[in-house]
UniProtKB/TrEMBL annotation:
Biological function: Specifically methylates guanosine-37 in various tRNAs.
Keyword Methyltransferase in annotation: yes
NCBIfam families cross-referenced by the UniProt entry: PRK00026.1 (NF000648), trmD (TIGR00088)
Name used for this protein in its record: tRNA (guanine-N(1)-)-methyltransferase
Gene assigned in the entry: trmD
InterPro entries: Alpha/beta_knot_MTases, tRNA_m1G_MeTrfase_C_sf, tRNA_m1G_MeTrfase_TrmD, tRNA_m1G_MTases_N, tRNA_MeTrfase_TRMD/TRM10
Length: 229
């Protein structure tokens, strides 16, 4: 059963990259099907409006609930998981990507403006799995880029999508630290040599060096990922 993904957005063109590279191949292989829906197709006024002023005042506009209700109703099943990207959401992570990769149907609601009327989440929460997710502690202009990131991180974990599943095994052993540095030919580049151990053929020494490098990098760049932190 392929993973089905429906993306609802006012900027369908944002998702053209999903036809390229690994994501494109995953669709061609039938492991994943991705459909992009223009929210404005689900409006009923001649201006195809999707936003209005916020109750309670405040700057900006809020996305009205009805177009979202019409759009989600058009694709939802009882197997659906509704993903709502928002800076207020739980943090998206590799374990969450792995969960989504094993879902049957994902619906991504890409908000813009100040966000989507909260009643959309409230309406679907009793009916299906609804997850408000954030990709990090910085503010984007909308949910589209976050959706692209979450789709790519999740779809690459769908069994059969990655040509070499070995890289996933390595990745899973990598956690909780960060990746060790990688090198390829030429052995010397602009006077800089590849670390000698990597040319030695001593796999135990290489594994030890890579583990050390991962710890050094994690300590310097991401001490929050160190065990016991
Ligand atoms: C700027 N503008 C007023 C402040 C509130 C957000 C709003 C913009 N905006 C509208 C819908 C929407 C969805 C996701 C995100 C988002 N930002 N950062 C993340 N990690 C995100 C995720 N995932 C931003 C969004």
């Amino acid at each position: 059963m392929p993973l089905r993904i429906d993306v609802i957005t006012i900027f369908p063109d944002y998702f053209a990259p999903l036809q390229l590279s690994l994501m494109g191949k995953a669709q061609q292989s039938g492991l994943v099907t991705i459909a992009i829906h223009d929210l404005r197709e689900f409006t009923s006024d001649r201006h195809r409006s999707v936003d209005d002023t916020p109750y309670g005042g405040g700057a900006g506009m809020v996305m009205t609930p009805e177009p979202w209700g019409q759009a989600i109703d058009a694709v939802v099943t009882d197997q659906s998981t509704l993903i709502v990207p928002t800076p207020a959401g739980k943090l998206f992570s590799q374990p969450v990507a792995a969960e989504l990769a094993h879902s049957t149907h994902l619906i991504f609601a890409c908000g813009r403006y100040e966000g989507i009327d909260q009643r959309v989440v409230e309406y679907y929460r009793p009916r299906i799995d609804v997850r408000e997710l954030s990709i990090g502690d910085y503010v984007l202009a909308g949910g589209d880029v976050a959706t692209l990131a979450m789709i790519e991180a999740s779809v690459r974990l769908v069994p059969g999508v990655l040509g070499n599943p070995e890289s996933l095994v390595e990745e899973s052993h990598q956690l909780p630290g960060v990746e060790y540095p990688s090198y390829t030919k030429p052995p010397t580049w602009r006077g800089l040599d590849v670390p000698e151990v990597l040319l030695s053929g001593h796999h135990d020494q290489i594994a030890r060096w890579r583990a050390e490098q991962s710890t050094i990098r994690t300590t310097h760049n991401r001490p929050d990922l160190l065990p016991g932190s």
